[in-house]
Amino acid sequence: MAAQIACRRIYEESSPRDGKRVLVDRVWPRGMRKEDAHLDEWLRDIAPSTELRKWYGHEPSRFAEFRRRYLAELGDAGHREAARHLHDLAAHDDLTLLTATKDVGHSQAAVLAEWLTSRGR
């Protein structure tokens, strides 16, 4: 079982304490070169749907509803395999969920970290 699940911006310096580094955004972060990302995986299929992402627009006032809708998406067929894979990663390694979002606390990475923790990893 993983000792830690963390969320960070992909633009931050990587750390040996990160464990597995997984990008959970659907689109590649602007200005980030792939060789500078120090990723173990880019799991774009775990990201919110394009429609949900655009609706949310990173407006904190919509976060509770975004969270509810995103958690519902995690159970649908389009996300199921990626969700299972992320759960397996969290069960075996420390995990850092990466996003380009400026407000990590109001991002899909934060929702995923909470979701993984609540599922007992």
From TrEMBL:
Pfam families: DUF488-N3i (PF22752)
InterPro entries: YeaO-like
Protein name: DUF488 domain-containing protein
Lineage of the organism: Bacteria, Bacillati, Actinomycetota, Actinomycetes, Streptosporangiales
